[in-house]
Write a structure and sequence with these properties.
Number of helices of chain A: 3
Strand content of chain A: 35-45%
Radius of gyration of chain A: 16 Å
Radius of gyration of chain B: 14 Å
Largest sheet of chain A: 6 strands, mixed
Structural class of chain A: alpha+beta
Distance between the termini of chain A: 22 Å
Oligomer: heterodimer
Structural class of chain B: alpha+beta
Strand content of chain B: over 45%
Low-confidence stretches of chain B: none
Chain lengths: 145, 102
């Protein structure tokens, strides 16, 4: 089976994050639901998509995704540490040439931050992103460049 | 024998028979019980480490004091923590511990 254009985009996003080496390569996840074995980590999660008619043969597709930034820190600086990881990840996505070739309007639409105290603070900053792709109505598997 | 004395004797027996760890704290080695329940914290594994020892032995311990735990049953040797909180429990004292993150 062939993956959708959305999946292709998210794999490129993941590759961009791995390439940026902000965290260990095996700590960049896609849709992980079980606890991450080591921190810091990034978890890329697909959220919503939508299509609007652009022309008789093409749609403008909207791809939303969430990027979870997981850190462990002392109680005094977990928000700062999570924020710094988000800023680095955001810069890596915006600067990625492969992504820029096939998407437009990549932007962060907002963030949420949570922390939980155990033997140290686990912080999770979730950044919501939105981008657009052009997609042929007869073929949902490839974004049009 | 009054209640406090009986409680003290029972606590001493419990710690000697069921204790699984030693805490090196404020220059002394205190025998007690260490536990660290695992839980899923926002998508990452974390624990809630605690050490329970005699109230007299831990009377001088304050929040933010450094503690080193050795607990053979949990394969811990000289694990470093700091005291995040301190709770009295019927002649015993429970230390809530946390790790310092680099």
């Amino acid at each position: 089976m062939t993956a959708s254009a959305t999946e292709e985009i998210l794999e490129i996003v993941k590759a961009a994050l791995v390439g940026a080496a902000l965290v260990d390569a095996d700590a960049v996840y896609r849709g992980r639901l079980s606890p991450a074995p080591r921190l810091p980590a990034l978890n890329l999660r697909r959220t919503d998509t939508g299509n609007e008619s652009s022309s008789p043969r093409y749609d403008r597709g909207r791809v939303d995704f969430a990027l979870e930034h997981l850190v462990d820190a002392d109680p005094e600086d977990w928000e700062t540490k999570a924020d710094a990881l988000h800023m680095a990840a955001h810069a890596a996505l915006i600067a990625n040439a492969g992504l820029a070739l096939i998407v437009s309007g990549l932007h962060c639409t907002g963030t949420e931050i949570e922390g939980e105290l155990g033997d140290r603070v686990i912080g999770r900053l979730t950044a919501r992103y939105e981008l657009q792709i052009l997609i042929k109505r007869s073929d949902l598997t490839r974004p049009h460049t | 024998m009054n209640f406090a004395a009986l409680e003290s004797r029972i606590n001493a027996v419990v710690l000697s028979k069921l204790g699984n760890a030693t805490a090196a704290i404020t220059g002394a080695a205190v025998a007690g019980t260490f536990d660290a329940d695992w839980f899923d914290a926002l998508g990452a594994g974390a624990t809630r480490p605690t050490f329970v020892g005699g109230a007299d032995a831990l009377a001088a311990v304050e929040v933010d004091t450094a503690v080193t735990i050795t607990c053979a049953p949990l394969a811990l040797a000289d694990a470093s923590y700091v005291v995040a909180d301190k709770r009295p429990e019927h002649g015993l004292t429970r230390l809530i511990l946390r790790r310092q993150v680099a």
